[in-house]
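User: Teach me something about this protein's shape.
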Amino acid sequence: MYKVDEYLKCGKDVCKVKEIKEKRFNDMDYYLLIPVKDESLKIEIPVNSDKLTNLISKEELNNLLEKIPNIEPIDIEEKFLENEYKRLLATGNYEDIIKVIKTTYLRNKKRKENNKKLAEKDINYFELAEDSLYNEFSLVLGKNYDETKKFIIQKIDEIAIN
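Assistant: First, the predicted structure itself:
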């Protein structure tokens, strides 16, 4: 059971436990959760919900960072790409989300190099994927969003050099 002021994931949202309400409905205890991304929202959810999970640990995060160079970008026909972005983001799997980040980044990098306009679709999914990861990672690392983003990029660069 989580405690007040602890962080957890509720589905894909990173939340803080604001309060534990006892036997609210159906004789079940409920958490009152506040999403980190939008503190004006409140989520009430049973304490035994299977939608609640722990944040990634520092060790798991470091292992994930080491895998990043080996995570392949999406290789699919253009007409199926947006559905694949949606599907991968919906899984909540870190490697799937990184796959979206790598694909969108590389596609727009290539466009930039060829003096073409950046694709709005790729920009939007890149930002969604980054948001999904960095909100959680920043809490685990004890850094703010921008510091986390810089830290992750630095780690990836270090791994690529070695």
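Now, about its shape. The first strand starts at residue 7 and ends at 10. The domain at 58-161 is CATH 1.20.58 (Methane Monooxygenase Hydroxylase; Chain G, domain 1). If you'd like, I can walk through any region in more detail.
User: That's plenty for now, thanks!
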